[in-house]
Amino acid sequence: MEYPSKLIEDAVNEVAKLPGIGKKTALRLVLHLIKESEDKTQMLTAALTRLRANIRFCKTCHNISDAEECVICKSPRRDKSVVCVVEETKDVMAIENTEQYTGVYHVLGGIISPVQGIGPSDLHIDELVERVTKPAPGSEVKEIILALSPTLEGDTTAFYLHRKLKDLPVKITSIARGIPMGGDLEYADEITLGRSITGRVLFS
Known about the structure:
Layout: H1 6-15, H2 23-35, H3 38-54, E1 56-57, E2 64-65, H4 71-74, E3 79-86, H5 89-98, E4 103-107, H6 125-133, E5 143-146, H7 152-165, E6 171-174, H8 190-198
Parallel strand pairs: 3-4, 3-5, 5-6
Antiparallel strand pairs: 1-2
């Protein structure tokens, strides 16, 4: 692709490094920023600079936070005895959007993936075990929900966590997996359909 300016080319190359954005989309975004007022562009760059300089991670659950402890962990309305284990912050946001969960979280910071060189020591697994064995006052953990993606890596991580936690005095559960609402059995893959059968619940 030919660019009329080296400045545009450099900007496009940087924007295209973001996930899900190709060179054409990056070019559209860069040209849009050029058309905007300089003030608006500076507001964007200032916000990104503040983000990188000031973002923190919760000391308890490792979720992205503005302070030492995130708003979920600090909330007196959350059930501290139930901990939902997820891969990344985006999973916390997805579950929160359902407005169905009232417990707290533990963000692993990834999943076990030998192909990518990610092992258990690269994740916040020891901290999860410590939350069970050495809870803060009023934060005794009674249940851990494994809410990891139904992939080979996700299942490997779940099995590893179960092995680490199974001898501790805590209930270990996982999110239900099955046919989505509005889904058609004809188009469901065998693994999903099989798990729907074996994980069946009482009809009510």
